Structures are given as C-alpha cells and as structure tokens.
Amino acid sequence: MADRGASALSVPDDWPAHPDPFLALNRMGTFDWDLGTGLYHMDAQAYEVFDLLPEEFDGRLESLGLRIPQTEASRIDAVISRAIKDGSENYGAYFRIRRRDGRYRWTHTQGYIRRDHTGRPRRVIGIVRDATQELEDSEGRRLRVAQEAAFRRQSNVVQVITAALSHAHSVQDVIDALKDSDGVRHLGAASLVMGLVEAGRIRLVAEGPEGSFVPGTLLTGIDEQYPMSEAVRMLSPRFIESPEDFAANYPILWPHIIGLSITSAAYLPLIAQGRPIGAMGLLYSDRRGFSTEERSVLIALGSSIAQSLQRAMLYEQERDLAQGLQQAMLPRTIPSVRGADVAVRYRAGSAAGSLGRDIGGDWYDLIPLPGGRVGAVIGDVQGHDTHAAAVMGQLRIVLRAYAAEGHTPAAVMARASVFLHELDTDRFATCLYAEADLATGVVQVVRAGHIDPLIRHTDGSCRRVAVDGGLPLGLSAEFGQLEYPVATLELDPGQTLLLCTDGLVEQPGADLDDGVRALTALIATGPEDVRALADRLIDVAEERGGDDDVALLLLRRRSRDAARGGGRLQQHVAPGDPDALAMARHMIRAAVRAWGAREHTDEIELAADELMTNALMHTEGSATVTLRVLVGRERRVRVEVEDSSSALPRRREAGESEVSGRGLLLVDRLADVWGVEARGGGKCVWCEFLVGRRG
Questions:
Q1: Which of 50, 137, 360, 520 is the most exposed place for a label (fewest CB within 10 A)?
Q2: Where are the alpha helices (DSSP H) in 261-408?
Q3: Mutual angle of helices 409-422 and 386-404, in 10-degree steps
Q4: Which residue has the higher pLDDT, 602 or 166?
Q5: Is there a contact between 432 and 377 (Cβ–Cβ < 8 Å)?
Q6: Cβ atoms 667, 650 nearer than 8 A
Q7: Helix (H) / strand (E) containing 88
C-alpha cells in the first residue's frame, strides 16, 4: 500500500554518509538514489533488509529485481512517479520482497525527494526496513490481507490476458485477445484503442466500440495534443481520472467522445527493448480515478502487451520473408507435359511460438526431358528455417541440371549427394527422383532416404510401392556409399503416381506405416481429377495442422490411343552398364504392349536384346537402341541398334563347341526381315516385325 502521509525526513545534504545511529539500532537501512546517474547506494543494513550481498548488487535499481517481484516493482514505481510528478516531497509504501530462501517478507520504504531550484527532482533519499513484525498486529494483518488480495487480483488479471496474448502471431491476434471476453472485460474497460508508431506518427490499428471512430485520429503526430501521443512522447502512462480532466487537457479529442459516456481513461505506452512501438488506451464509463493497485495492474499489463505486440510484429515480418523466400525457391510454374496430367501443392508448417518457422526445405520439381520423358522430384532438406530453404533452392537447381544433362537417375542422385556434401552446410536431404517415359509408362525410381511413392489405379485403389533406396543426400557422399539402386515401375494409362514428403503422412506419436495406410485410404476415396485430389489432400493436411511442411506431386498418365498408330522411343546403352541394358529391355516390352502388339512382346524383346549384346561385345563404344512403329498397309515394329563400328556383321552357323555366332541366326528366325545399314560414323543393325494389317 502507499503511505503518502509520512512526514518528510530531516537529513543533511551529504546523507547517508553520516546516518543517524537510531536508524541502525531500529534495523532501518538507508538508501541514496541519484536520479541523474541512476545509481542507487545502500548501506549495510539495507543490504540485510533486501537479503542481498554487496557483490550481488551493481548499483542499478533494476538489479533489485532479484528480490522484488515485477508486480511489486511496478506498483512502487507508480507511487514514486506520482509523487515526483505532483510535486510531493515524500512518499511511503509497503511492498513484498522474495528472500533468498524463496519466502516473502513485508518491507516498508519511505523516501524524501530532493529538487533543485527549478523544482526538478535530482535525488531521492530514504529508509527501507523490515515491516513483517509491524504487520502482525490487527491493523497490519488487515493491510496485509488487503495487499495480498490485491496482489492476487493483479496477478490473475495479468496472467489471464498474458496467456491469451501468448498465442498471438499477428497484430490482429493481439487486438482480438484484448477485445474478447477474456481481455478487456477483466479490466472493466468499456472500449479500447491502440496505435502503432510508424515514421514519427501513430497509426490507429484498433478502436472500439464499433462506430466510435474519431475523425482525424487514424494517423496522428507524436507531438500532437492527444493522450496516446503524450504517452508515447513522455514514455509514461497517462491516467485521466475524470471527464473534467479529459476535457481540460484534450480539448481536440473530448468533443468527439462525449457521447460515449467516458468517465476516465488510461493511456499506456507500449515499450519494447527501450523504445516505444505504440500506445494503448482503455476507456471506462463506470469509474473515476485509479487506485494504486489498478495503476500497477495496467502498467504491468502494458509491458506484457508491448512484448506480445513486438513478438507479433516480428512474426509477421518473418512470415512475409519466409513465404517470399519459399515461393522464390520453389518452381514458379510447372510445365505442361504431353501425355500426363500434373498437380503440385505445398503447405508450410506452423511451429507455434517460433519466428519464421513456417518455412522449410520441402520441395517438388517437374523436369521435361528429351524423347517425351519427364523427371519428377520430391525432397526435404533437414530443418525449418531460411537456411534449409536456401539449401533446398540450390539442391533443386543442381538436380534439374544433372537430369537435363542426360545422366541416368542413379547418377543424378549420386551427383546431387556429392554436391550437398561439398556445400558449406551441415544439412542433409531426403529425395525421390522418378523418370517417366509417358509413351510406354516405364518409370525409373531412385530413392535417397525418402518415403516410398504411391500408385493410384484406374479403379481408385491405391498402393504403396516398396523401392530399395540409399542414404539421404549428403550422408551417402560422407560415408562413401554413392550406389543408388534403380527400381522400374510401369504406369498404365489412367494410373497416377503420387510423390509426397513425410509431412503428409507423419503425425506425432503415430507410426509411419499407419500414416501411409490412412493416406492410401484417403486417396482411394478421393476425386479422379489430379488437381481436385491434390486440393483434398492438402486441405486434410491443413485441417490436421502440424509443424512439418508438406510437398505433393501427382502425375497421371493419360490414355494415349494415338500411340497405337505410331511412336518412337530411344535408349542409350553404355558398355559395362547392366542397369541401362535392363532398362532398355523393360522399355521395349512396355512400348510393344502400349502399341497394341502384346502377343509379339517376347520375340521383339529377345531380338532387340541380341542386337544390343552384339553391339556391346564386338565394338568398343556404346550403343543406341531405337524402337518405332511403321504404319502403312501393314503395321510393323522396327528395332534399330546403332554403334560406332564400321565392321558389318554377318550371319554364320555356330559350331558345336562355340558359344557365339547364334545372335543373328536367332534374329533371322524371329524377325520378318532384318538388315544392316552403314551410317556416317558407324552402322545400324535393324529388324522388323509384322504386328497387324490395316483394313
């Protein structure tokens, strides 16, 4: 409680250099507070009252926060500020301190304000004493009970509103938290106004009740005669205790609020990190004046609101930066792909209470490749910050470059891992790269620590495709394990390949397999159109929430009846590359099926395999296999294998003990016709198969 009626101390100018002995005998400590330097001097007895050691105090008043709770400190500051402002010579107040053992002790302080010849306060001297025993009598107990009740009320109000403000991620969230039933109602205010400092002016961001807007107050100068401007300018609260006070001090504003029946108001500066970021006004219609406890509550609350407001403003800035950076790193557009419907989606995670956490390293990409092929990428760089996004952007670019250069999927992944390892970062990344030939439906998949792809069938059912994988990018290079196995899938017309990051399937405390099963069930009941399906999946992820990002890519192969009438595929086969040879066989089989010649699949694949094997065994270079449909009166499938050797092959009968020489003999028996053509830098061995007649 405040004790404003205490008599002034009669002390010499150099006090407390020679304190009166009776002070020490009565366990009263002395202090001397220089308002100019801010230094606060205490004697040995004062240290005992505060339960402090001299080495624990640096002479700064704020250092007493080690013993004085914030709510008590705010109340004492209000008492001293009021005494200084209204010209009083002295003040007194009871307050509690927290002792070293954690228990509370009642303390009393009495101060005398020394002013210079102009009336400006320059020094506060006084005493501080242990008042616990004093408050043990009946009057003291009454005062203590009242103080404790007021302290609890103050704490409850501040805690309730502070709890609501802790969830604020925007300035509007702060305003809503103050205006709803758990905010202003607890303070008993009829309405609220709030302004933010911008370029030397105050911009009004909230006013109430609705319809009470005062013309000319949307943007006001800090030096203008408004209470909010004065609070910002003076860095101190302005308590207006009556309508007369309002009318006398703010004649510009008062005529506009007479109709609101305002009887008092409190305008608080919102100060964060030593600078004003705005001000808030609480207007009351059922009271006059403010008690010491009420002022303390509002001052403490103003500090809490300022911190929440600054946090919300920083969060908005970080969010804008994060969203801009994320959009810059992801592909701006997705190219249209002939023979496929494609949909991509991205959802930013939201880590509550963390600035800039709605940005991460998840990404997708679609890369057009020669020969009607397309590369689909999904990946996730470790972390949720701007550094993860920056690494993601670099990784996406190099993956696109390696794929466009014509490297095999395994080589694309290995090179990307080496790149990430050599980058100046400690991050790793999971990734899945799928290279699809949309004419045949052949899809080569390489997985680096990422979750498996899914395939949705034409009947709506969905399944997870287990794909052997290697270590995440960056780690595989670090441990020298750069071999990535390549899995080959077939995507029939109407089927959809789905790639996603783990944010779509993982939930805290749930098993990953359970998440995948839930996702496949959701896809099975989803719409057929890939864009509508992507929207549904991302909406479900949004409803579920979560801290992790979600990246999603869907690729649906269209039905291509025109492929039956003509087509051309080509595959490069390097010597000593069994994966390329196997891939070529797979391409041939899938293409023949797609072109409606399923019954000829085995002989065409076998003949082509013999021609490729001959080229690799009897020449020193690589081979290129081309498969095409010839349409005339008859439909024929033509297989061509080119190499760099000018030596022409010849058919010969193999001896009983020989293991070679049967290749062309087999081709001759299987194909309807075959031959050899000289090409500029080598030759082409070809064969044709009759697969149907027109008419």
A1: 137
A2: 292-329, 386-404
A3: 140
A4: 602
A5: yes
A6: no
A7: none
- DSSP, res 460: S
Distance, C-alpha 499 to centroid of its chain:
22
What distance in Å separates the CA atoms of residue 653 and residue 662, rounded to the nearest whole number?
7
Q: Is 257 exposed, middle or buried (0-12, 13-18, 19+ CB in 10 A)?
A: middle
How distant, in Å, are the alpha carbons of 146, 157, 188, 192, 262 from that of 287? 20, 18, 9, 15, 9
Strand partners, 117: none
- Would you give the end-to-end CA distance of the chain in angstroms? 108
Q: At what angle do helices 601-618 and 578-594 cross, to 10 degrees?
A: 150
Average pLDDT for 517-537: 92
Tokens (6 digits) for 223: 């030096």
DSSP sequence for 13-71 = TTTTSS--HHHHHTTEEEEEEETTT-BEEE-HHHHHHTT--GGG--SBGGGGGGTS-HH
Whether 9 shows a pLDDT value over 70: the answer reads no
Higher-pLDDT residue of 604, 476: 604
Could you give the CA distance from residue 486 to residue 290 in angstroms, rounded to a whole number? 76
pTM above threshold 0.90: no
Q: In what order do the strands lie in the sheet with 28-34?
A: 40-42, 28-34, 121-130, 104-115, 90-98
Say whether pLDDT at 19 is over 60.
Answer: no
Tokens read off for 275: 């600078």
Token reading at 339: 């023979």
Distance from the Cα of residue 540 to its chain's centroid: 18
SS3 content of the chain, % helix, strand, coil (to 5): 40, 30, 35
C-alpha 82, offset from chain centre: 45
Single-letter residue type at 548: D
**73 pLDDT higher than 80:** yes
DSSP state of 412: H
Residues 641-678 have pLDDT tens digits of: 988 887 777 665 555 444 455 678 889 899 999 988 87
Q: Give CA–CA dist 131/494, Å, rounded.
A: 85
What is the spatial distance between Cα 283 and Cα 264, in angstroms, rounded to a whole number?
Answer: 6
Cα 372 to Cα 284: distance, rounded to the nearest angstrom = 73
Q: Could you tell me if 430 and 506 are in contact, meaning their C-beta atoms sit under 8 angstroms apart?
A: no
Residue 670 CA from chain centroid, whole number: 61
CA distances from 438 to 247, 443, 497, 568, 624 (A): 79, 8, 12, 12, 19
Could you write out the DSSP letters of every residue in 154-174?
Answer: HHHHHHHHHHHHTT--SHHHH
Query: Cα(169)–Cα(309) distance, rounded to whole angstroms?
Result: 9
- Across 249-253, 442-446, 538-542, 616-620, least confident range: 616-620
Nearest to 560 by CA among 586, 594, 600: 594
Dihedral sign computed on CA atoms, order 239, 241, 242, 247: negative
β-bridge mates for residue 454, sequence order: 464, 498
How many other CB atoms are found less than 10 A from the CB of residue 584? 25
Task: Determine the pLDDT at residue 457.
Answer: 93
The conformation of residue 356, written as its DSSP 8-state character, comes to: T
Tell me, what DSSP letter sits at residue 645? -
Of all residues in the chain, the percent with pLDDT exceeding 90 is: 22
State the pLDDT confidence band at 247, using cuts at 50, 70 and 90: confident
Query: What pLDDT sits at residue 8?
Result: 39
